[in-house]
Amino acid sequence: MSAAPSPVPPPVPHVAPSILSADFGNLAAAAAAVAPTCEWLHVDVMDGHFVPNLTVGPPVVASLRRHSTLFFDTHLMLSDPGRYLAAFRDAGADGCTVHVEVGGTAALIAEMRRLGLRVGLAANPDTPFEAVEPHLSQVDLVLCMTVFPGFGGQSFRPEVLPKVRRVRQAVEQAGLDVAVEVDGGVDEHTAALAAEAGATVLVAGSAVYGVPDPGEAARRLAEAARAAVQHAVT
Ligand code: DX5
Ligand code: ZN
How many domains does the chain contain in total? Predict the structure, then answer.
């Protein structure tokens, strides 16, 4: 017996540029550069504990909020994200994504919901689908890391693609409106692979901000992803 058709139309993949690879001295310009071609901006928050690197916190998000109307997709690579959720919401984050590896996931999801945040749940490359599966109906986004988080410019891990496929299949079979995001090593080639596997949001740092025209780079990534999806259904 085949599964009932999903009531949710297949989403068109889109790109969320990661400011991790942008000029931190000019983040307003980095946001403005992609605003014509993107709707989301990915903000990587690192605590030097969950990952071996430090980036930005709520004050920087609040400052950038005054310069951009993009959706702030805030990726919290923090050992204790619950401590900072309200601060990120107050700073202007639209969505927050916490890592399932830190534990206490149900309570973190409830708190993000209570705060009115779009709810994201991330899994590292070696974290299995089964870790996120129990939470699928409670979240708005599942982030499958395609690198071990901490640094931009790493190589995409294709071994994560089967998990991307499983997440997307589970979401569709349950008729859920859940975005499937990949993050790490996304370029025009891997964007196509990820989209073909079911990713609907492609985070890209160095492929967008490491080139002279970030807006055009993001547009081309989205085009590559959409072409792959088109190809897969025809
Ligand atoms: C990695 C971050 C990513 C990073 C991706 O820890 O979560 O968002 O910016 O950078 P690229 O696209 O260069 O791999
Ligand atoms: Zn990220």
Answer: 1
Residue 2 within any structural domain of the chain: no
The predicted-structure confidence for 56-83, as pLDDT tens digits, reads as follows 999 999 999 999 999 999 999 999 999 9
Instruction: Compute, in degrees rounded to 10, the torsion defined by CA atoms 200, 73, 32, 28.
Output: -160
- The pLDDT tens digits for 161-189 are 999 999 999 999 999 999 999 999 999 99
The residue among 93, 59, 51 whose CA lies nearest residue 85 is 93
Rounded to the nearest whole angstrom, what is the distance from the C-alpha of residue 234 to the centroid of ligand 2?
32
| Domain presence at residue 183 | yes
- Using CB distances shorter than 6 Å, the residues near ligand 1 are 18, 20-21, 42, 44, 75, 147, 149-154, 183-186, 203-207
Annotated catalytic residues are 44, 183
